[in-house]
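re: ur question from yesterday

yeah so i grabbed the chain u mentioned. its 118 aa long if i counted rite. heres the sequnce exactly as i have it in my notes:
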Amino acid sequence: MSSSSAEMNSKKAESEKTITLLVYALQAASFLFVITFLIAVVINYVKKDDVENTWLASHFRWQIRTFWYSLLWMAVGFLTTLIVVGYIVLFVNAIWLIYRIVKGWIRLADEKEMYTTG
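ran it thru and got these structure tokens back, copy pasting raw so excuse formatting
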């Protein structure tokens, strides 16, 4: 492999890592601006093919699952607020969402996959 080809691959990998970091930041910002949660998952789906077969693919899978499961539990929480348990569901979902963002961000900084294999 030529040095220019290796340099291009290195720049592409760094760009993909930056996009993954951006998605975590957008997920975190969703506590202030809900729309950023939707923007984050759209970026995940648009850029998903670019990270296929890389260690970042596991982060994308983690981020996408975080979005869909959080959306599910938000809906359950809102629907059950009339019987008070919904507030607990929403609170637990928020804590779970923080956990997912922090864990993903830390593993990204350490350049580790989200799911261990083997």
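noticed a couple things. Helices lie at 3-29, 35-47, 57-79, 85-109. also The chain has one domain: 3-109.
anyway ttyl
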